[in-house]
Amino acid sequence: MSTYQHQLSCTGEQIDMDFWRTPEGVRVPDDELNFLLIPDEVEARALFEVARQVHVYQRNHLDNGDAITRALIVTMGGMLPGVLLYDHLVDGRDPGVPKIQFGTIGVSLYKGPGLRYENPLVQHGISIPISEQTVLLIDDLGDRGGTLDFLVNYLADSGASKVLTLVLYVKPAAMDLCPADFWFGQTPQDTWIITPRERVETIVKRVPVWKERGADQAECHRRLVDIIGYPGELVDYYLPRAFNA
């Protein structure tokens, strides 16, 4: 059993967070991508570590006016990280640290399958006042960095006095274009990161690609369960409809 497979199946004290800081995904036949499944417990622990980074920042900037007072969750990717971080950053904040007001902003990268907009499209605007505030932008991944870079400038143009970014994982292209201020781990650029909120989405998007390249349903099941590490019952439920769509 590989270290990756062991980490997917282990629980509690056996989880090695150092492994998850720089994980490499697994390759499946006839696919140019590596796939990395992030367990729920790993995401929760990783965000706890990132929250502690923010706590340090808040303590260090409490007296200079740069403490974070607003947080914007990028939908959909930032929804799960944002909910988990709220517990740490609001209810778990140090005495004297201002309460962070949470809101959302929605962006889209794609017109349709494989068709990217020239720039990210704002689907719904900033849901809370941010004028003259230090804003924390929360997303799940920094992939190419285009979304973060666009939003940082968008929020600055919308009146934020300072914009900080937080993601769970970053890739090299994102770190070159728009380095995150707070993050947990790094992956190679060709890694398809499957966070807990997009397991079904990945099945729906990738199975048709494998089918088109010659894989039958049994082979798709093998790739998802035996190689990537999906729970069998999840694949049994969603694979038939994804394969026959």
From TrEMBL:
Q: Which CDD domains match?
A: PRTases_typeI
Source species of the chain: Seongchinamella unica
Which InterPro entries does the UniProt record give? PRTase-like (IPR029057), PRTase_dom (IPR000836)
Where does the source fall among the domains of life? Bacteria
Q: Which UniProt keywords apply?
A: Glycosyltransferase, Transferase
Give a GO molecular function annotation for the protein. Answer: glycosyltransferase activity
Q: Lipid biosynthesis: present as a keyword of the record? A: no
Q: What is this protein called?
A: Phosphoribosyltransferase domain-containing protein
